[in-house]
Every structure is written in C-alpha cells, then in structure tokens.
Amino acid sequence: MNAAIQDVQAPMFEALDIEHRYGSRRALDGVSFTLLRGGFHALLGPNGAGKSTLIGLMTGLLRSQAGEIRIGGHSLTREPRRVRRQLGVVFQQLTLDLDLSVRQNLLYHASLHGLGRRLARQRCDRELARQGLEERADERVRQLNGGHRRRLEIARALLHEPALLVLDEASVGLDAASRQALNEHVRALCRERDMTVLWTTHLLDEIDPDDNVVMLCAGSVVAAGQAQALCARTHSATLQDAFRHLTGGQGPDNEEGRT
C-alpha cells in the first residue's frame, strides 16, 4: 500500500489513553477514541464530563500528563507546530478583541499563522463572504450579536485552512434559533470542504441520528459509534435514553460543575 493511500485511510484524530488530573481529582481517565477523516463528529457529555479538559490538551492550553494525542498522524507532543497547522478551534469562551473591527481580528490571527499580507486579505475576504459578514467587516466586534460573533470565530479558525475544526460548546449562550442556525452552518461547511468537525456539546438536539458520537462521562469514554446505532444497541427510543443507560442514569443535560 502506498503512502498516499495510507494517509487517506489514517484517522484524522487519535486520543490514546489520555489521563489528566487537577490535584487529586481525575478529570480524564484513560480516554481513547479516533475520528475518521471528513464528517461531523459529536463529543457528548454533561458539564463536568471532561470535554473542555480534552480540548485544552488538544490545543496545548494544558500540558499533557499521560497518553498521546495525534492529529493527521502527527504527535502533538513531538510535532506541535505541524499539529496546530491542521487544527482550527472555536473555544467556549469568546476570544475576540471587542474593540477591534471584524477584519482587524481576522488579519491579526492570520499574522499569527504566518500568512503574508496579500494572502491574509484574500482569505479574510473569502471567509467573511462565506460567513455572511462581508458588509460588517469594518464594524467593531462589540456591535455584533452572539450568533455573528460565533460566525466570526469560525471564520478566524478557518483562515489557515485546517483539516480539523473543533468547536467546544460553541452554542452556549445562544438562543434556540441561533443555536440551530450555527449547527446547520457548521454542517454545511463540513460537507463543502470535506473537513473533519468535532462538535462538543451537552445538548442532544444538536446531534443527528447518523452523527458519529463519542460519549464522555466522569472523565471516561462510555460509548462511541453512530447515534442511532447506540440507541439500537441499548434498546433505547432516544439518544437521551441511551445516554442514561450507558452512564448509569446520568443525563447529558446536567448543568452542574464544568470541567
């Protein structure tokens, strides 16, 4: 088998026996799963399950304590720059500069990725058009509503053309209509660009029956597979019932402590 075929068939993302502690509290306990190239994947779990800790490790905000993360076949520990070139991230907390304009936020981020001025402007114009923000390019970010700010963060995350886009509870704080619109928009981007998306959430209405799902609870992976297959396996009428079955009664919509 030649190298090109191997590369296409290799997983886009691999978590290999990841462990992480905050003092004596174990946030992640031997977490292992893979994401294939292309498609929309959901990381499902209640607040406090360890989703944000995992995202912190993926993005280098947290230092690895045990296990390994690979993106595009490259080790985050040994090849961090190669990994980060393939990764776009929308964090749960807003990370835009509210006093800069929409375009200035994008150009600043492009410079951090080493894009030349001409290419950066071309990419900014392209992403603003795709996000429907071109007419607001010169407005300060603080003038945008929550949904438009999220779209701007997605535009920023796509400037360097990553292979994997990760959204950590990106719909938190949005109303129901804005949440649905954002979810549909990300799915469309996934299809159009043949991009791998990891969408972390504790809200089941953001998951479709044919989505690939990784269920995380109390720092451990309790199940992985297509949502409707997990329902069938547990003889559950809904994904919420399946989640409760697999976690011993805990619901994914738990609003207690965040990890």
Please tell me about this protein's structure.
The protein is α/β, with parallel strands linked by helices. It has a domain at 95-161. The protein is built from 9 helices and 10 strands. The chain has helices at 3-9, 51-58, 80-85, 102-112, 117-130, 146-158, 176-193, 227-233, 239-246; strands at 13-22, 25-35, 39-44, 66-71, 74-75, 87-90, 164-168, 196-201, 212-217, 220-226. A 6-stranded mixed beta sheet has the order 6-7-8-3-9-10, sandwiched between helices. A 4-stranded antiparallel beta sheet has the order 2-1-4-5. Strand 7, helix 7 (176-193) and strand 8 form a beta-alpha-beta unit. It is globular, with a radius of gyration of 18 Å.
Instruction: State the helical fraction.
Output: 25-40%
- How far apart are the termini? 42 Å
- H/E element sequence: HEEEHEEHEHHHEHEEEHH
Output the radius of gyration: 18 Å
SS-based class:
alpha/beta
Oligomer: single chain
Unreliable stretches, pLDDT < 50, 5 or more residues? 1-7, 254-259
Helices, by number, come to 9
Give the strand order of the largest sheet, numbering strands 1, 2, ... along the chain.
Answer: 6-7-8-3-9-10
How is the main sheet built?
Answer: 6 strands, mixed
Proportion of beta-strand residues = 15-25%
Number of strands: 10
What keywords describe this structure?
single chain; 259 residues; alpha/beta; 4-stranded antiparallel sheet; 10 strands; 36% helix; globular; disordered N terminus; disordered C terminus
